[in-house]
Specification:
Elements (H helix, E strand, L loop, with lengths): L5 H16 L4 H8 L3 H8 L7 H13 L1
Helix pairs in contact: 2-3
Length: about 60
């Protein structure tokens, strides 16, 4: 990759990781990024941070209803 191509790619990667960490649904992020959901999660799963507490709360809330 050309050194000139790295900054736009880095910015794109940062944006996708930000959207995922903000809680935007994977299908929406994939559409905006031009990926399929499977490719998005394969590439960016390691970028998703700190979702365990939120996931646990959502599961608990779903079980209470």
């Amino acid at each position: 990759m050309s050194p000139l191509a790295a900054p736009p790619y880095d910015l794109r990667h940062a944006a996708v990781a930000l959207w995922l960490n903000a809680g935007v649904a994977a299908p929406e992020v994939a559409e905006r990024a031009g990926h399929g959901v499977d490719a998005l999660l394969r590439v960016y799963a390691k970028s998703i941070d700190g979702g365990a507490e939120i996931a646990n709360r959502r599961i608990d809330d779903a079980l209470e209803t």
